[in-house]
Amino acid sequence: MNATLQHTLETDGIVVLHDLIPADVLRSMQESFAARLEWPRFSDIDGYERTERMRLMVQDVLTIDRGFVELALHPRVLALARAYLGPAFRLCEAKGWQTLETERDFHGWHADAWYDQSEGGPIHRELKLAFYLSRVESGEFNYVRGSHRREHPRSYRESEVDATRVTRVTGEAGTGFLFDTSGIHRQGVPVREARNAVFLAYHDAGVKLQAEDTAYHRYHPLLLNAAFLGDLDEEDRRILGFGDTRNHTHAFRRRVRYPRLVRSIEKIWKFRLWFDEATEPVRRRIPFLRS
């Protein structure tokens, strides 16, 4: 492991990593990610989720391309994570999103809240590996160097941020960076063109989660694709959480934000399926109706 990178991560809270993934693997990751962005997740369409206006979320990226598994288990990344987080760390979340073009600061300055703060206690360590799948010249990641591990995570006003210490990470597709999520950060504005990126979260899975994330089942055991797991060693399997049931919730039911809307869409879809079934004999006899 590069001692300079480790020192930079400890002192600044962020370190940029280049040349993590070969060009051909990156292209495959971009294609797989783009395929999920074509349609929203619905019925038999395994697409993106949309819970806010400006971001299209792609969940469980380890299932869509082998390159994301290689990225998550990259030796340089794991060496830095092991030194920074300790030997009990695990990969606990793997997702990405497309940020749409906007002038709005919809994702302001904050540190990532994830662990339970109700009983006080230490500032727990978490690292995220961010990885650009598109060229980023605007809407880049902003991080306040040296702001990590000073207080429990919260949101910040612009007036609380030392602009002289802000690192802005622009770069080509394939640019990666590790950062301590207790540091102050945001997505920059404006976003002049859509930005595709993935974020992989590493922390000790034994740390008690905040109630909001437990209710959402956010840090559920990773979903994986058997086709991509043929050459894992024992440590890889531990990092991916094989057999770790601590954050599994039996028969989990997520709260539906708009139940009436969902039921209405379900009724429309049911009617469409009934209509196709009812008109099938006619469409079989009239060729131009088959499409």
| Overall average pLDDT | 95
Rg, Cα atoms, Å: 21 Å
- Superfamily at the CATH H level of the largest domain? q2cbj1_9rhob like domain
Question: DSSP strand (E) fraction?
Answer: 15-25%
**How is the CATH topology of the largest domain named?**
Jelly Rolls
Biggest sheet, in brief?
7 strands, antiparallel
Q: Which segments are poorly predicted (pLDDT under 50) over 5 or more consecutive residues?
A: none
The count of β-strands is 10
What is the CATH architecture descriptor of the largest domain? Sandwich
The global form is: globular
The count of helical stretches stands at 7
Characterization of the model:
By secondary structure, this protein is of the alpha+beta class. It has two domains: 3-240, Jelly Rolls (Sandwich), CATH 2.60.120; 259-289. The protein is built from seven helices and ten strands. The chain has helices at 3-12, 23-36, 66-72, 75-85, 211-216, 234-240, 259-285; strands spanning 14-17, 49-52, 55-58, 89-99, 126-132, 136-144, 166-171, 176-180, 185-187, 195-204. The chain has a seven-stranded antiparallel beta sheet with strand order 1-8-5-10-4-3-2. It has a three-stranded antiparallel beta sheet with strand order 7-6-9, with no helix packed on it. It starts with a helix and ends in a 6-residue tail after the last helix.
